[in-house]
Amino acid sequence: MDEGVAPGPPESKIAFKDKAHIERLLHHAHLSLGDTDKIQFRNMLTDPDHEYDNPISEFLDYMRKPENFWFTCKYLFNIDLLPFQLALLQELWVRKFPMLIATRGGGKTWILSLYAVMRAIFNQGCKVIVVGAAFRQSKLLFEYMEGFYKGSPVFKNMVGSGKGMGPKRDIDRCNFYIGGSEIIAIPLGDGTKIRGLRANYIIADEFASIPQEIFEVVIKGFGSVAANPVERVKEEAQVETLRKMGMYDIAEDIEDEADFGNQTIISGTAYYAFNHFYDYFLRQRHIVQSKGNQNYLEEHVFKGPMPEGFDWTQYSVIRLPATTLPRGFMDKSQLLQARAMLNTTRYAMEYEAVFAKDSEGFYRRSLIESCVTNDPIMLPSGDNVEFDVMLTGNPNKKYVYGIDPASETDNFSIIILEINGSHRRAIYCWTCNRQLMRERLKSKQQTNLQSFYSYCARKILDLMKVFPTDHIAIDAQGGGIAVMEALHDISNLHDGEQPLWPYIRHKNDEKNPFYWEKTNKPSDGEAGLHILHMIEFAKAEFTHSANHNLRKDLETRSLLFPKFDTVLLSEAIIEDKKYERYYDTLEDCVIEIEALKDELTTIEHSQTPSGRDKWDTPATVEAGGKKGRMRKDRYSSILMANEVCHVMEHQLEGQPYIHAGGFAGQMNQGKNGPLYTGPQHLVEQMNGVYGMGVRRN
To answer: What is the pTM assigned to this prediction?
Structure first.
């Protein structure tokens, strides 16, 4: 055996001839073809027996054939495609209604971007529209297209650098002009601004988040007109005439040569079965499984007579779980981490391309979604509730904060709930970590505070100016004490601000509902706002009560979540740009609320060997065998905030708490009454500071 070649199992040995042969074997190893020297490839470009009538035309015809896409992508974009990517491209190319359900990290967005560019090149005069639930998803596809343009001299030269060519960005859309073709990436919104658009090829990505009504009414309407309607009418008339004359072969040739026609691609990651994506998947799978059987189609798809001319071969379903990808395509350690970090249901959806009936945890996803006000929710009280996330509160409302301080590796999380009589609303969520703070510090665009907890304390104090509050719940463990200290550190305060201290509970205050509060704390005599609930989160009494109350409040719709749809995301992006928000944007808040809902679904209820109830995220194994847990910062925050609200609403009736609030300077105090009530030494210093404060008789 030659030096440098490691022996393998006898069955895996390949006889090699020389060093050049070894290089060829290694170069083609990823194709799983074995010894490619034994394969005779026939290439029309090098076929000496082939005569060229029009070499350029034949070359283009060769490049646009799906079986030659490896060469096409290599020549035009300098991209090497793997066999499964070639298979994906070919399937997308020949089906009018393909559906792609792919694992996270499977390159779905990248391959769709490549497909869009190739369609624009080889079907000149066409229009390709890319839509996603959020504009950021459409822009992600567009960024890949820009990468193809910038990374390939051949493609860039072919497109040209003229005024009307190449990729162009605007506030509410992205355009890519390739010859007579155009690719458009757009925000979906409510569909009104894009209703009049027309397209020959539609790519609807992250389909689970696209409202079904907008897809059916607006997006599918993009492709209702043929690419070249006049020519298409002529072709159809010619085909019909030829068939009447008995010239079926010629008629079929004309049909084959006709344009592919308009196409709609549905793609995304698998989701819950109660989402409309699952219904589309089932119907499309039935179509493929029917293999054209009329009885099957009428029973499972149409629920009645099958329309004349229906062609089942135009449909396909492509599932791409992580297990089907070639070894090395995905980072093995990242995949193992996902397997360890995510519960079974979540992993099945995101990495195995499997739709799940529901989440498995203490807080079912279906329960959470039933409290989302995408459609107005009618409460038993008669209230018809629908709302969005907020960056500024209502001076006439009460707000309660829940704060989970960060450890060294976790997020610092703030949840704000708005109290609305019959219910409460999760209207704001913010998270941060040390790395993010350092990035903002480095950019000098956000903060000059060196201490992480000082930075987070400043965020709380700033939020109090727009979300007036007299109840802030903080986990006393971890960094909770450090946060509390930062909130009453005089050096952190701006002019007119008061230090924040733990809540006061007197020894004889028997009717006080806040069961976790201790009496006669050393801080009770300190001047400032006594509004901090320092909660020992790990105590069984609190966790048992708080978790059961939270689930009950979801079941009774006493706690509601804001709308999450394409309209909100589009409006958020526009508003953020209008007010030049680069950090802590409205769009960020929308995404944070979604992350909160995801965290809730991971919470599992179990019992310790001693019989004590326990709520936690699934156990994980990190690098080096170190055991850990998934993050639950947002869950902890809403748990604390909701428990404060719950005991206030259910046990506080008749208690001596007086609402005197609103924004400072915005509420009418009357001629004589003070804005705040409480111990005299505190009241004297609190009027005009924050919208709400201590109010105790």
So the answer is: 0.65
